[in-house]
Amino acid sequence: MYVNFGGFVPISTVDWRGRAACTVFLRGCPARCFYCHNAALQGGEDLRDADEVIAMIRGSRTVAGAVVFSGGEPTLQGPGLIHLAAAARRMGFSVGLHTNGMFPRVIENLLDRHLVDMVALDIKTTWERYDDLLGVAAVGAVEQSLALCRRAKAEGSLETCEIVVTLFRGREGDLASIAEAACGLALVLQQGVAAGFDPLTRPELEAAAAPLGRKVRIRTREDGEVGYDPEQELFR
Prior knowledge:
The chain has helices at residues 50-59, 78-90, 104-112, 130-134, 139-155, 175-181, 202-209; strands at 2-12, 21-26, 47-49, 66-71, 94-99, 118-122, 160-167, 186-191, 216-220, 224-229, 233-235. It is α/β, with parallel strands linked by helices.
């Protein structure tokens, strides 16, 4: 079996909060978000035997107890992703997934086979604006992926699920409806960074989060990741 390989990081402390993980990047994504920080992985081809990637994961066992699959969009390569996740599980790794949720059947398969412990699901905008932003019909699939993750988390078959929102100046008003859709799951607000945009500062992201009345995590280039609670201002 071959996968369209995008890269490998043998040790990362930022791809899974609180865990030392190796990260496998799989190439290819049907969306074309203008702010994508891995735009070079949206297309192109670098076919690798899955056994080569499994060997990379195996080589990280001395320093990492988890593997995160990211991209690109890793669920685009459903059979390859499942094969790699199953191999990682057999080696004793915890498995994390960063996904845009466009392929819910792959996520469902991973969940049903107990091959994933953490899902970081990007919710990019309000449902009404979704397809225009991504440039493809995606909203129904993402809603289905969100429902799958919420159910798995409630049933206890998914250890961690966080909803990641990349927020840009001028779109702060979208946050309430996104947070409502993500009710019951961890919420991460990520500073939107793109050419021609003035990024929101951490205090501005906190101000946008305050009306939600719930704990969130805020990520900025300046301060990394911090916890925010409108009742306590900050928490770790």
